[in-house]
Amino acid sequence: MNLDQNKTLERMKILTELHGAPGFESDVRNYLKEEMAPFVDEFVQDRMGAIYGVKRSKSADAKRVMVAAHMDEVGFMITNITSNGLLQFTNLGGIANDIWQGQRLKVKTRNGEEILGIVANIPKHFRTGNEGAPKIEDLLLDIGCENSEQVSSRRIEIGDTIVPETPFTQLSEHRFVSKAWDNRYGCLIGIELLELVQDMELDVDLYVGANVQEEVGLRGARSAAELIEPDVAFVVDCSPANDMKGKQNLSGELGEGTLIRIKDGTMILKPTFRDFLLNKAQEHNIKHQYYISPGGTDGGEIHKANQGVPTAVIGVCARYIHSTNAVFDIRDYTAARALLFTSIKDLTSSQIEHLQYS
């Protein structure tokens, strides 16, 4: 079954432009539910905010397969409103200090309005030469207000969240730029996986969805895993590419295919699962690359849940993630989608038991 490329691009645009800072993922969750509804039998949701669509198998005692993305993106939370109408904020997620001055960000108010602002930037004319990179807490967001009363009149309050203002844009035939490709990639691939298998009878109960608060310490993954109690899990997440000066060891290269993450700071891929994925990729001629990261994914929590869950990350890489603009290659996405689809469509109970105990 082939998917409509234009529909894929439309979903990319919608998902990446949604406002979804850690702990404030409701817009993304609502979109996922709307898009997945035609392809699933029911939804399950934990108390943290994760949502999973369930495609039930007709097989008795079917094994449970979890496909886990995360909804949140790195962002900020307002901590102070100054007397002259500027906003101070703190980070939500891992963010470099030195990339935000002069950037466009948007605040989401409690009534759902999004308000544009510019991060204050000292012009060269007023610099002394002694300025270092400011701390996030020292930055100010200018939304055009003259005083705190004007800010209040726009229904902006302490605790409201901020994310980059970045329109989804095509740069070339295969490459695109957006915010939040980490990890609206995983949300998109989950929707499209369900669309691909909608008319198939699977031997497994398939749980596809997304967790919350990954960017602030993998906080939502464990509750989702405890809810589903999966027999095997596939995590779908976006990782940083380090290829601006060419290939750099196993750190991801745009256009070179899906990532098979063999080691990171939270999980080591089981050899049996590694070989399972490699065999699928080679059998179906799916472009792929090994990947190692000092960071982690929700797999770091999922694989430790209950008695242990065989878990693999099927990922893509992008340049400049955790900033205002991430550049990615759509061919890597289609390779990841192909590997995820072929890994799940013929998955049997005996294969899962092999992944569990071998």
From TrEMBL:
Free-text cofactor note: Binds 2 divalent metal cations per subunit.
PANTHER family per record: AMINOPEPTIDASE (PTHR32481), AMINOPEPTIDASE YPDE-RELATED (PTHR32481:SF0)
Originating gene: pepA_1
InterPro entries according to UniProt: Peptidase_M42, Peptidase_M42_aminopept, Peptidase_M42_dom2
Record-annotated active site: E214 (proton acceptor)
The protein's name: Aminopeptidase
Enzyme class, UniProt record, top EC level: hydrolase
Binding positions for Zn(2+) 2 per the UniProt entry: D182, E215, H322
Swiss-Prot/TrEMBL keywords: Aminopeptidase, Hydrolase, Metal-binding, Protease
